[in-house]
Amino acid sequence: MKIKILVLTIFYLISSFNLSYAANSEKVDQISKNLRCLICQGQSVYDSQSDFALSMKILIQNKIDEGKNDEQIYDFLKNKYGEWIVYDPEINKNTVLLWVLPLILFVFGGILIFRKVSIK
Amino acid sequence: MLNQIGNYSLYIALLSSILIIIQSSILLNRNNINVSGRIFSLISIQSLMVIISFIALIIAFIISDFSNETVYTNSHTSKPLFYKISGTWGNHEGSLLLWLLVLSIFLLIFTITSKNLSNKYRILTLFFQEIIILGFLLFILFTSNPFMSLFPIPKEGTGLNPILQDPALAIHPPILYLGYVGTSIIFSSSLAALISGSVNKTWAKHIKDWVLVSWIFLSIGILLGSIWAYYELGWGGFWFWDPVENVSLMPWFCLTALFHTILILEKREMFHSWAVILSIATFSLSMSGTFLVRSGILNSIHTFANDPSRGVFILCFLFILITLSIFIYFFYQNKIKNNFTKTYIVSKETAVLVNNLFMMFFLSVVLIGTVYPIFLEVVNNDKISVGPPFYHKLIVPFLIPFLIFMAIGPNLNWIKDKINKINLQQILFFILSIIISFIFLKRVGISYLFSLPLFIASIFLFLITIKDFSVKKTNLSQKISHFGFSLFILSVLVNGVLAKEYSSNMKVGDERKFLNKTIKFESLKVNESKNYQSLEANFKISDKNNSINLKPEVRVYDQPQTITSEADIKSTLYSDNFLVFNILKNDGFYNVRYQIKPFMIWIWISIILISFGGILSIVKKNG
Fold this sequence. Notes:
B: four-stranded antiparallel sheet
């Protein structure tokens, strides 16, 4: 009986480990797609098989295991490697033009067209 | 020997270029302008010389003449003949010579085909085109000469980058360049038309063919690049928003906008200035593209060869051309007849303006996303990356109204249309697309915020473009291109939503379950080829009903020593099975990535359809 329980517990542990591993590795994929592989030429961490990318994936996995959420992981990486590593630049005083300029152009162009055509 | 032939013919071409510029300036000051036989023969000589130098380079590559530095650094005797030839333009020097070749041949074609137009306009176009040719000749001869001699002559070359040894990539640069260089004619002729005061119907009709030709080549060039990236880079995607890809997309947006504007100019004599501005912008973007790629300031997989001094040269040249054209524009702008007729809000004219607005928006997103990081780094030394999430966030929300406008616009009449005409039939289609999208997303189990409106808009466009085939009013080439575009958007969306991917480390004999399929790593063998060794794996993918075998390779090229992964792809009309594997350091384990990519083939087919519409339009007009 005891053995049976032991086996069941071990089995349960393994399977639950596998399950959480699977869920986590999806998370790793999702995060690593947004990261630049710093030693490669224009590849994401996810797509690269370089040593850097592999150790990055392990690092992300560890952070997830520590219970960190996405934002904490991105922040950690940005602190360590700089903004360069993330493909999705956050909006701050440096990047506000990057995000807003196309929108301004669109509005401006829209007004220009609207003034040229007659509504009636 | 070949080096000398190449060099001399380039110098003769340089001389002809200077003579043509002088000759055309003299002619322009005369009252009675006549395109004399002398100019025509100079242009012919110039083209001939450039052709000779290009052939000399090709021969040097074929016979592996290592006294030529370009051949030495980019070829090897063990290369297959096909890649020896494509190696000619697989490097910086050779690709610029190809630019020049297309430039001068296009000018020759222009001179021959424009005989029934005003002589002043023709001479001016020649003049501007020769300035561009002169710039390229100087650039080639003094910073990137493909005919540098080496002594003592090396016995063996250092080889061509193996990822370039691929059929799609062998023809990708020439096709793309035909598109890029075609825009130079548009540029020169728009300035010429501006100065000679002939920005009008006749000009629009004449330049439309050049716009179409450039646009077709650019589209197909981009397509080839995408297909190559899909199977060679081994990531399973077809567009990565890589800076160099973006650079080819920018003139495409501009050309698409220009083409629609030119149609209005031809039919309704409107938007003269805008057409000229777009013509200038299109070529500036093509040139900047070359600058960005060749200067090496972009962090990209494409920066194979680079050297800052070359970048500086192109930057200066670009600066001169743009300043010159802006100057000319403001100086001669008042020559444009401003017979702006009233446009009503519901009309084909407005629809084209809206098309242009969206094209300019997409262009600005891509342009700003590509160059902003460069400027930021110069200004305050901050390095940022702008990748796919940025482009998706800005482009996708605007795609929704764009697709709906695209469905409605082409069915509007010129000048003025009634609003109520749009209603009934289109509302029915719209409701139908809501239902289809809803059912589809429910079955797939996706609930993204943007998915539903995006699917509704693209299915709406898809249905409308199919319906339009039954309407006689519009022309067939437009219907095909627009249908192709709707098919493209739809395939990309479905592909994005339904793609499945599995990645794992496996040994020979391992078996993995994925969805309802079994992936079995059956065997591994070593093959010897002419200039590489390959490790060929055999995977069996099976489900209940059938099984397929996929045989991806890892190649080890010897000259230069490089490892590449060759994906194996089995395409059907419904989906692609994509499998690629990589060597890991752990003994016996390989990283295996298996992907199911639905409707992948339709992405390629739709782009071919889009281009085919353009081809049909040219054939119909001239046939």
